[in-house]
Amino acid sequence: MHDSVIGIAVVGHTNTGKTSLLRTLTRDTTFGDVADRPGTTRHVEGARLRLEGRAVLEWFDTPGMEDSIALLEYLERLAGPDERLDGPARIRRFLDTPEAHGRYEQEARVLKKMLDCDAALYVIDARDPVLGKHRDELAILAACGRPLLPVLNFVNAPVHRAGEWRDAMARLGLHAAVEFDTVAPPLDGEQQLYTKLGVLLDRHADTLARLADSLARQRRERHAAAYELLADLLVDVAALHIASASDNTALAAASQQLREQVRQREQACVTALLALYNFRASDFADDALPLQGERWGMDLFHPQALKDMGVQVGMGAAAGAMAGAAVDLFSAGLSLGTGMLIGAAAGGLWQGVEKLGKRVAGKLRGWREISVDDAVLRLLALRQRHLIDALERRGHAARDPLRLDRPDDESLRRGPLPEALKEARSRPEWSALAKGHEDSERRKQVVRDLAKTLASDPAPAP
């Protein structure tokens, strides 16, 4: 390798997750080919990491080793009776043999890349038992004379043998190892990996430390940007007001418009979050996130959506009318915040309004404004916040569509709404969903403050 670029080979047995590891470390869901069948990677593929615009580290994905037991026996026969070859010399002699281009061609690619690199990660499927072939693999790789850092993959599986692997590696003199599940990596997993690589590669320790710091800073910046996207969504929705006549048909049409605009705005936020974390729409089933039996794209205003998330609703929603819309009565300055009136209209139950008495019903004969109820704002905040947490914990090698459980976040579910959203309710010009939108300096400051408030609350449980 060139002195200025650290070369790291990613090696190991077939189908242990080498390509998956590199997808997660490079945050690239398209790197290489990932499949359950063995021998998916048949050639060496590389990816570079940059620091301040300059390439400082290059990863090399290598084919899986499949015949280590026979290869080790072959290597032991390569030296003549009067020769004393060290490990790298023996490997180089092997690479010059016809067998390196025939029976052991795949292993030869791995060993050649090992000799070219500064160090290697040995990826282990921690669910597998420790077998003789693995010990022979490690002996062959160690013969290359390069530092070797074992990486225990799939340690989040219900059953794994990480302890057995650590014991086996210690007997081979490999006492440093990293647990890094490529599907659900630990938040500080990259820092752990680069710190231990820095110990093995002392002359590159400073570069590796700066790279780890840069990646940690990028993670913090993504986190802050994600919460600004969430805050912007909530301000847009809280500030949205739709004018309507008070008759049944007009109110129903206005409520449908409100629903569609809010649903589309939430989907825009989801799309932006996926792009921020470098995930694809295909990471989600049918572009929707299943959530406790309900679809992500379901009607946000349906009482069942609120109930499934544990959001408290008023009697209008509980009774089955459309939850989530508030009708502001201009002449009386009142609000039926749970959406009973507009719910009844949307459901063809306008006669239920009469139960409120002739006085209140009479207030509805003029033009009114419809806005989103507090319960829907809570639901939006809960869903998006839990999505952010799930994306931060998801590896770029994960192939199953993301599933979200009900978030454990009582502050958003029942606590007081942030002051920023109360202010947004009185500023209809702050909503990008309406005409006359003004992205004023005050709005920008409110979004920033709200983002910090939401990000500083305890994170939802994974």
Sheet with most strands: strand arrangement: 2-3-1-4-5-6
Instruction: Label the structural class.
Output: alpha/beta
Q: Beta-strand level of the residues, as a percent range?
A: 5-15%
The name CATH uses for the topology of the largest domain is Rossmann fold
CATH level-two architecture of the largest domain: 3-Layer(aba) Sandwich
Report the major sheet.
6 strands, mixed
One letter per element, helices H and strands E, the order comes to EHEEHHHEHEHEHHEHHHEEHHEHHHH
Amount of helix: 40-55%
* Cα distance spanning the termini: 41 Å
CATH homologous superfamily classification of the largest domain: P-loop containing nucleotide triphosphate hydrolases
Question: Whole-number radius of gyration?
Answer: 29 Å
Tally of contiguous helical segments = 17
CATH class of the largest domain: Alpha Beta
Report what the structure shows:
With 462 residues, this protein is an alpha/beta fold. It folds into 2 domains: 6-200, Rossmann fold (3-Layer(aba) Sandwich), CATH 3.40.50; 225-314 and 367-456, no CATH class. It is 44% helix and 11% strand. It contains 17 helices and 10 strands. A 6-stranded mixed beta sheet has the order 2-3-1-4-5-6, with helices on both faces. A 4-stranded antiparallel beta sheet has the order 7-10-8-9. Helix 7 packs antiparallel against helix 8 (205-238) and helix 8 packs antiparallel against helix 9.
